[in-house]
Amino acid sequence: MTPEQLRNLVRSVPDFPVPGVLFRDITTLISHAEGLRAAVGHLVDRARASGAQAIAGMEARGFIFGAAVAIELGVGFIPVRKPGKLPVPTVGIDYQLEYGSDRLEVDPTAILPGQKVAIVDDLIATGGTALAAAELLRKVGGVVDQALFVIDLPDLGGAERLRSANVGVDALMSFPGH
């Protein structure tokens, strides 16, 4: 399936989570076997072209796509977790959200010094989480210069924020608005 055909599998839900937001729901994409396979295949091609030696995905939907890409590439998957989810000593980073703050953590032994890590996630909006993940992975020795997404919401500026931090951005599709 082409990215345009995959785009047609994404459900738009008006007024979620708040009035005025048109939510792009990937549930319909990931529940469609051929669509999921094709989306992962497109991400694999892009990750391979970037020279990724490992794939990192942010909790939770980044685990879906990131782990699948890592399996297809034959490389390791690095889970970027919410606080308190890893049973070993972690390295973390606090970051700002649109309405508050959050924290990401990673097991620093999961990354080899100088290892080229590509970030994979379902969607890039404002870029706060992806930017924090890139900074965190770099902090523990990873080389992060590529982030791959199924969906980009370019009007929210996240891809540009990542590019400003020297992280290339590629998405299978984009949607206008929020």
TrEMBL record:
Homodimer. Catalyzes a salvage reaction resulting in the formation of AMP, that is energically less costly than de novo synthesis. Keywords: Cytoplasm, Glycosyltransferase, Purine salvage, Transferase. It comes from the Bacteria. InterPro entries: Ade_phspho_trans, PRTase-like, PRTase_dom, UPRTase/APRTase. SUPFAM superfamilies: PRTase-like. Residues 53-142 form the Phosphoribosyltransferase domain. This is Adenine phosphoribosyltransferase. It catalyses: AMP + diphosphate = 5-phospho-alpha-D-ribose 1-diphosphate + adenine. Its main location: cytoplasm. It is found in: Cytoplasm. It comes from Tsuneonella deserti. The lineage of its organism: Bacteria, Pseudomonadati, Pseudomonadota, Alphaproteobacteria, Sphingomonadales. Its EC number is 2.4.2.7. Pathway: Purine metabolism; AMP biosynthesis via salvage pathway; AMP from adenine: step 1/1. One of its GO terms (molecular function) is glycosyltransferase activity. HAMAP family: Aden_phosphoribosyltr (MF_00004). Belongs to the purine/pyrimidine phosphoribosyltransferase family. Pfam families: Pribosyltran.
